[in-house]
Request: fold
Amino acid sequence: MPFVIDIDPVAFRVAGVDIRWYGLTLVLAMLVASAVADHEARRRRLPGGVVADAVLWVAVASLAGGRLLYALQNGLPDLAAHPVHLLMVWTGGLSFYGGLVAGASALVVFARRRGVGWMSALDVAAPAAAVGQAIGHVGCLIGGDSAGIPTTVPWAVIYRNPAAMAPLGTPLHPTQAYEAIALLGLFVVLWTLRRQPFMVPGALAAAYLVGLASIRFVLFFLRDEPSVLLGLKTAQLIGIAIGIAGIGLAVLARRRARLVNSPSARLEATA
Reply:
């Protein structure tokens, strides 16, 4: 029997401003991700306070990049008429990959400015991003954002609330829940791999990118979005590029590790 979701996407109002469940889960996701990243940074003995300083950079860049790409893909006419909508991230509507690329870029710039290895910084962020994104998808599930295609599976969801972003009264694949569970699994894998001796700097981030791209590539076959090329959707095409970037990062990480551990490098270090 399908699960019925009849929840107002607006949790409450403060001074006339709607506070949505999406925004609340986003805040919770950031808090949990920050705690996970701080724990890993301490284990790696990175400079104290580096995570707290990086959070602002990454959060602002992720929100801006995610909102911008979402607006370009889904609401360009509305954005042209009402540019202020670009800033209203609390209303929902963020592109997963837009936030990922912008946040990762900001983290690389931040790490270089602080004298921290950018590959190590990405490694610290990888498991934190996975668990944070898993939590964020709970907000999508409540509000009906990123809805799946109609289905007859017994665990389908039906939206009843008129304010939901999903089609009403139709059993749908709970793709938001699928993705949350898959990302939580990815977090567990990354959290386990992080202590393995073969995980050179950059390898954990590479594993995250490849895992993320694989998860979203498969799940987007169940998303109600139009195909744009070769039967694939925009996010799937972007996901292929992200996966290739992850493989490239893994190759680069392995090469850098070999150079650092080469006899000539060790000789120079002791000279």
User: Anything to note?
Assistant: The chain has nine helices and six strands.
